[in-house]
Amino acid sequence: MTLDAALADRIRQTPKAELHVHIEGTLEPELIFRLAQHNKVKLPYASVEALREAYAFTDLQSFLDIYYAGASVLLTEDDFFDMTMAYVQRAVADNVRHAEIFFDPQTHTERGVPIHVVIDGISDALAQARTQYDFSSSLILCFLRHLSEEDAFATLEAALPYRDRFVGIGLDSSEQGNPPEKFARVFARARELGLHLVAHAGEEGPAQYVTDALDILKVERIDHGVRAIDDPALVERLARERVALTVCPLSNQKLKVYPDLRDHSLHRLLEAGVLVTLHSDDPAYFGGYMNANWEAAFEALPLTAADGHKLARNSFEASFLPASQKTAFLAEVDHFWQSPLPAAASTA
Ligand code: HPA
Ligand code: ZN
Q1: Residues spanned by the domain of 117
Q2: Which residue numbers delimit the Adenosine deaminase domain (predicted)?
Q3: Mutate to test the pocket of ligand 1, among 22, 61, 257 (most ligand atoms within 8 A of CB)
Q4: Is the per-residue pLDDT at 345 higher than 70?
Q5: What's the domain count of the chain?
Q6: Given a cut of 60, is residue 348 above it in pLDDT?
């Protein structure tokens, strides 16, 4: 299917919120090599080209192995700052107005990088982005699910002195064999602390993991969640309870969740009334940032302008922004989609 030029323009230009992006997944090969040289970290790849060539993933684990190797070049506050600022500039170019950004502290603390280096570097860049680009953002601390719950508890404890720098916790890394219930206690603790809760579920794992993330972890949003489609009662529940699924089309394609995007469940989920949102996940690894993901979805699936408007609205609706800011962004989205197309775009 080819995407109508006027609609392509609209989806690129609409204000949108990014709710599923791992900051370590925005590290471009060029920056990986620059930091490796500067920090004298040895990489198992001879060049930027050789690293890019290794981005031929067969599943989630084959990606994670390379993603953790890439993140090993991050050592100083400046490194985290530069990575974050590079992401912000790409997001701004795609008309992302607000981002809720994941970071994986354990990937760094395991290598001896203190958690304050990670949090200060990222949050200093986001503070600068707020004034420089009027870019709104918050952080979500993710636990690596292949590690123990005890390790997650220690990470939460170490992060608490910086409680004002993040709004929630998430759960990522290898899903198979690491079910939601493994992290029941640490999620309960985070809930007591007033943190927002999200978790990756139903990416490679079954629909049951989506149900368990809701019932056991009590998460407010599900990251990916595309396999919910296998359970019609769950799809109905997601729609009824207005639980957002933060869907990442290019990630799902590259990690072979949906090798052909024409088969992707997002259109069916949207039609069933589920609050679907579209995001980039690990854009440096999966071939594109927000607009590339939106374009890929609209090219592969019979999505309309009304769907574009809805997906943009959903992204702010599902955010953890305070009600007043949410309302202001939603008004901006509505105004954008209700305005006539500029002449150049409508005749393109
Ligand atoms: N899934 C699980 N863990 C991750 C991902 C993902 O898509 N990206 C970064 N960590
Ligand atoms: Zn993810």
Answers
A1: 14-318
A2: 15-335
A3: 22
A4: no
A5: 1
A6: no
